[in-house]
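Thread: Newbie trying to understand structure tokens

Hi all, I'm a second-year student working on a class project, and my supervisor (Dr. K.) asked me to get a predicted structure for one chain before our next meeting. I've only ever worked with sequences, so writing a 3D structure as a token string is new to me. If someone could post the tokens and maybe explain what I'm looking at, I'd be very grateful. Here's the chain:
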Amino acid sequence: MANWMSHFSGRHVILTGGSSGIGKAIAHDLASAGAKMTLIARRSSLLDETREDLRARHANAEVHVLPLDIADEARVTTDLNAHLDVHPPDILVNNAGIARPGRFLEQTNQDFRDHMNINFFGMVHLTRVVAPRLVERGWGHIANVGSLLSIMGIYGYTAYASSKFAMQGFTECLRAELKPHGVSVTILQPPDTDTPQHSAELEIMPAETRAIAGTVKMLSPEKVGRALLEGMAAGKFEVIPGVDGRVTAWAHRWMPGVVRWYCDGSQAKA
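---
Reply by user tm_fold:
Sure, no problem. This is what the structure looks like when written as tokens:
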């Protein structure tokens, strides 16, 4: 068994957004590793389909589903606590999120609230329920699925990047606070990934944004999900899948002016 698989074998993983895209890819890898799972998403029909798919492809897979709107703090607190009283958690992966690109001057305050309520506060709601249980045990792992736009901003993503920057800051602080309690924390920062959500983004993406995004190679959800699991098993805090993504992050960290010049040039051509 690969090292990353042994890290998850027999562990109970709470996974949000597990019915499609990166989350679904992670769920299949976890099932292969012998992990137990609770999948959380808003649509119960997709959750049921994913559970049956996992059971069909992975013998003896133990998969629970919990339909929840993670932005609803009261429901998350009540329903998830009740579930965890019966199925204690070992690992939390906050993967659920939305992305609706658009120009700031054309978006509304509600667009910003939607991004923050799901991408940021949804993560906080889940973490507030799970983290105390991991601290009490003295072991566990929390992973948050961010984006390259957790550390850099580009044309057309003011609402999305704001929520992911907030996630980055939260995750950095959380790592420091939970480390003394034996709980590890990881953040995933993938570039564009070939998911149903990204396909929906392309339909409304400004031309300037498309010109910039097209310069970075798109990754498969399987590659991104596997990178996260391998990074968690290795004890990494930041996980950036793909060479292009790592080069972009490095350049933005050490040569931010050059990156902005390049992005400005790309959007100007559009």
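A couple of things are worth pointing out once you decode it. The longest helix spans residues 109-137. The chain is about 55% helix and 15% strand. Feel free to ask follow-ups in this thread.
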